[in-house]
Amino acid sequence: MSGRWSLRRRLGLWLALSVAALWLSAATVAGLVLRHEIDEVFDSALQEVAQRVLPLAYSELLAREDGAGTHHMPPVGPHREFITYVVRDAQGRVLLQSSDAEQMAIPAGLAPGFHTTPRLRTYTEAAVRGTVIVTTAEELDHRAAAVWRAVMALIWPLVALVPIALAGVWLTLRLTLKPVLAFRHAIAARGRGNLAPVPEQGLPEEMAPVAGAVNALMERLRGALEAERGFAANSAHELRTPIAAALAQTQRLVAELPEGPAQERARTIAGALRRLSRLSEKLLQLAKAEGAGLLAEAPAPLAPVLRHVIADIDRRTDRAGDIDLSITAEGGPVSDLDPDAFAVLARNLIENALKHGAPDTPVRVRLTADRLEITNHGAVVPAERMAQLLRPFERGPTGAEGSGLGLAIAAAICRGAGLALEIASPIPGATEGFSAVVRFPEARS
User: What InterPro entries does the database record attribute to this sequence (predicted)?
Assistant: First the structure.
């Protein structure tokens, strides 16, 4: 798997992380604001409790008969006191306190107003010329817990928000980038001899110039390839007629000349013209292999084409007896490879095997549902030469005549039609020989 990340994944991840970061930042700011507001609310509550307790405490003290001693206000019911109070006189003696005041250990001698200790937040207010002093207190942990619970109430939805945001972002990006993905697939489909313009409909504004540039590039490439192929095809075609005429005249000259050096030279010229004729035919095949039109409109069986190729080879060379043909299924594989292109492919591979194989040994041709396999016996081709054999005018270690175009033509057809050509030497499982395997994909509907 490639280490690159798709644009959808990058945008989805960054957008989700951005949403999460913004949510956390907003929760943090909200927590700070909430802390300030909670402090104001609880400070107001401390002040209000003190102001309400003060007249009630004064009335309670006046109503007491002994006027001395600490009086605990009993709780109305079981509950937790978040705000406690204590009433003292000018000498700091406790006159009245709430039920939980002793546990709070509210300090004495505090000046009127708000004070903060390491553990408490207090408010003190005095009356009757400083003889009655009320101090209310609240634990700071209570305020922190309230702020924390409020902040967590904001953060917890983030746990559900992140997956939802990821799914929403992924779906949005998938729908948004659908034209871009279609554009990518359209470009990928242009690798098999198809250099037609890529559709630009539906592309975002940012991608439209890219599509225009790609189409312009393919137009220039198509023009260059057509010029190159046209030159090769026209050159080979124009050479066929004069070569055929020269060969006919040379053969006539061979028949008319008496035995001797002159007739031998004429035979040499005729042989050279025959080789030149075969080379021009191979150049025509190479031009077709490197051009378009390698795929048929509808899939068709390949076995009849292969039998016709072998019959034609027998008619020309009388070597059908050296071919061991095997077709595993009736009609052979069904493929959308153009029959003419398959005929050129099979002919070049079989002729190459007949030409470079060991004498008096059969060439095995196997056509199955997924491959065409051709093997011949002979010397092993060095590993460093194998890849070079697929290039034009490259030949292996053989003394047989040839142009070095057979495998190059087969490779060009396979490359243009989306087939896989595998060559090996020695034959897999043997110690010598050469094999060429063409693998067919499933027929495209």
Answer: HAMP_dom, HATPase_C_sf, HATPase_dom, His_kinase_dom, HisK_dim/P_dom, HisK_dim/P_sf, TCS_sensor_his_kinase
Domain span at 442: 293-445
pLDDT (tens digit per residue) in 176-204: 777 777 777 777 777 555 667 777 777 77
pTM of the model: 0.47
- Packing angle, helices 261-289 and 406-417, rounded to 10: 10
Contacts of 398 (CB under 8 A, 6+ apart): 355, 356, 378, 379
> What are the distances in angstroms from CA 19 to CA 5, 102, 190, 402?
20, 49, 40, 69
Nearest Cα neighbor of 421 from 433, 408, 431, 430 is 408
Rounded Cα–Cα distance for residues 384 and 399 (Å)? 19
CB neighbour class for 350 (10 Å; exposed up to 12, middle 13-18, buried from 19): buried
Question: 128-160 pLDDT, tens per residue?
Answer: 777 788 888 888 888 788 878 877 777 777 677
pLDDT digits (tens, 9 = 90+) for 334-389: 887 778 778 888 888 888 888 888 877 888 999 888 888 999 888 888 887 877 78
**Is the separation of the CB atoms in 365 and 326 below 8 Å?**
yes
Q: What is the rounded distance in angstroms from the CA atom of residue 436 to the CA atom of residue 366?
A: 11
Residues 366 and 412 in one domain: yes
* Closest of 371, 367, 373, 375 to residue 328, by C-alpha: 367
Q: Provide the domain count of the chain.
A: 3
What pLDDT is stored for residue 74 in this prediction? Answer: 54
Beta bridge partners of 420: 439
